[in-house]
Write a structure and sequence with these properties.
Layout lengths: L14 E5 L2 H14 L4 E4 L5 H13 L5 E7 L5 H12 L4 E7 L3 H6 L12 H10 L11 H7 L2 H10 L1 H10 L8
Parallel strand pairs: 1-2, 1-3, 3-4
Helix pairs in contact: 2-3, 7-8
Length: 181
Amino acid sequence: MARKKRPSRTSKKVYCFIVEGCTEENYLNHLKKLYKKSVTIKNCKGGNAKGVMEKAKKIIENDLFSGYLIWFDKDRYFYETDYNLKKNLESKTNVEKIFMSEPCIEKWLLAHFEETNFNQPECNFFENRLRDKKYIPNYKKNECMLLEKFINKNNIDTAIINYPEIGNILKKYFKIMSGSR
């Protein structure tokens, strides 16, 4: 009697998020806890988009992960000097996506509480609005405990709707769908 063939195993994709700074890292760590997902996060410790992308290029050279996502703020992206580096990274088969918070991560955080269709180029506007509206009282960049206290599954659903460009990170890589409370 012939042996039955076992179905071949498909390896689970393991992603690495390469992020600009502590706020992105803290946010993603919070998502990992809320949704019990396993992703690796590499923090580039701030700087500008070019610095983040150069560090990402070095990290990717080791190629330990199935896919890489790079996330930084657009307020420090300069088309004239950063475009070619961005295109080079996007052409790599293991780079899934480059996300840019426009103009900064604080706009994404504000999207958890209200629509964010403001044409504001200044990050201070979004930081102040988070504090002034008391969505995240005493908001300070890089304060991870504040995110854990004020960001929850309900307002994550709101953010996905209010800012779909970044919400796609959650939908695709954390398998979060709106209404998934």
